[in-house]
Amino acid sequence: MSGALFDQVKLSEMLDEGMAAVERAMAEVTDSNVEILRDASRHILSAGGKRIRPRLLLQTYLALGGRDLDKVAQPAAAIELMHTASVVHDDINDHGTLRRGRPSVNALWGRTFALLTGDFLFTAVYELMAPYHDLNIDLANAATALVEGETLQASAVKNKTFTREAYMEIIAKKTAALFRAACSIGAKLAGANPREIRVLSDFGFQLGLAFQIVDDILDLVEDESKLGKTSGLDITQGRGVAVALSDANGNGNVSGEDPLDEIRRKMMEGDTIEKAREQAASLVESAITGLANLEETDAKSALIDLAQQIVERDR
Predict the structure, then answer these.
(1) Mean pLDDT of the 208-223 span
(2) CB count, 10 Å around CB of 227?
(3) How many CB atoms lie within 10 A of CB 241?
(4) Please, which residues have CB within 8 angstroms of residue 248's CB and are 6 or more apart in sequence?
(5) CB of 200 within 8 A of CB of 192?
(6) What is the pLDDT of residue 314?
(7) Of 59, 64, 63, residue with least CA distance to 76
(8) Lowest-confidence region among 67-76, 129-138, 241-250, 287-296
(9) 165-203 pLDDT, tens per residue?
(10) What is the Cα–Cα distance from 303 to 63, expressed in whole angstroms?
């Protein structure tokens, strides 16, 4: 076996071990004595999901020379729990009934217990991050931005001001900020210097923007069975990349018995989807270019592969 191949195999094994440790950390910290909280948490966590945020933290850590996976499992788990808490709350606000291929917590336990489950997952983040001192600032900033982004989104929809500019500000806060925190925390845990931390933070931020744009495209073009969550909510509730770009493509407001189908048809006829995909691809390309000065290693290549998978995914 060549040295390069051995490194790739070893890296894959380390990532698998790291992600297994993340799953254990999430299971342990949500093992409540209160049955509903325990069962609802296990329901949403055992459904899986892409786990891209904790994987991004782990791969950033490895790309900068980190090797102690036990050191990063809890922060990576905290990142994923913060994201999971937000989607549990999202399903309450959006009346979503399907999440990660299963009935949502809201659909099974109702709004009150879904709200409390989301709160419980958020508090678990504090427990996981308690030993990590200043890294809590990175995650706290991301949590603040997440709530601000969701609030700006609700306000823009209500006031009919969901423009391209508003959309980019919203996704920067509600999605990209947590991606940035994942990379920043991973870099700091690896002992990176300030320049490397800045480079990886920017990398995560641009990746987060691209990820959300692709997510919104898929919400428009894919069905629920493939997505594993309720589709079309962004369009029917007056938000998402298609709404943000609609005026530029002459689509305007849509009315009728089935506005989702009509908007989908108009998006397919125009170039909105193509433009959105191009924007996502450009963001990922810029993110990868920013890594040019980092040492060429298998771990760096794996991080680049993860970035490329964001724009190529179909769910």
Answers:
(1) 85
(2) 20
(3) 29
(4) 164, 272
(5) yes
(6) 75
(7) 59
(8) 241-250
(9) 889 999 999 999 999 999 999 999 999 999 999 999 999
(10) 7
- The kind and range of the H/E element at 72 are helix 69-94
Quick one: angle between helices 272-289 and 194-221, nearest 10? 160
CA 45 vs. chain centroid, Å, equals 15
Q: Give pLDDT, residue 163.
A: 84
Task: Name the H helices within 95-134.
Answer: 105-129
DSSP class per residue in 139-189: HHHHHHHHHHHHHHHHHHHHTT---HHHHHHHHIIIIIHHHHHHHHHHHHH
Among candidate residues 41, 51, 47, 44, the one with its CA nearest the CA of residue 19: 51
Quote the pLDDT of residue 246.
60
User: Quick one: average pLDDT of 56-81?
Assistant: 95
Tell me how far apart the alpha carbons of residues 156 and 257 are, in angstroms, rounded to a whole number: 23
- Mean pLDDT score of the chain: 86
Strands 102-103 and 98-99: antiparallel
Hey, what long-range contacts does 33-38 have (CB within 8 A, 24 or more apart)?
A: 36/109, 36/113, 36/116, 36/117, 37/116, 37/117, 37/120
- Token pair of 126, please? 């504090």
* Residue listed under structure tokens 């969901």: 162
- Over residues 98-113, the pLDDT tens digits come to 888 889 999 999 999 9
How many CB atoms are located within 10 Å of the residue 12 CB? Answer: 12
User: Coil, strand, or helix at residue 271?
Assistant: coil
Taking alpha carbons only, the member of 25, 134, 146, 14 closest to residue 77 is: 25
pTM: 0.87
CB atoms within 10 A of CB 262: 15
